[in-house]
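Batch job 17 of 40 flagged for manual review because the log was empty.
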Amino acid sequence: MTLDVRLLEILACPVDKGPLWYFADEDILYNPRLKRLYRVVDDIPVMLPDEAEEVDDATHERLMATAETEGIGPTFDA
């Protein structure tokens, strides 16, 4: 199951308040500006800053390549 489109339109990073990229296949919301990801557990985004995971450069590049290939964009226009 994927997150509701209406929810995605309002979700923002709790740290910088910017848009996120939703990778449904990986159950994550990703902030490429801060290289932080937020897990989606049982269709509920875990948006607590303390629960965010920092990613390395290789993971960042993989996610951005996947976003480009699959047409994944930000949850809203900043």
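Reviewer: the log was empty due to a logging misconfiguration, but the result itself is present. Residues 5-70 form a domain with the N-terminal domain of TfIIb fold (CATH 2.20.25.10). Unflagging and moving on to job 18.
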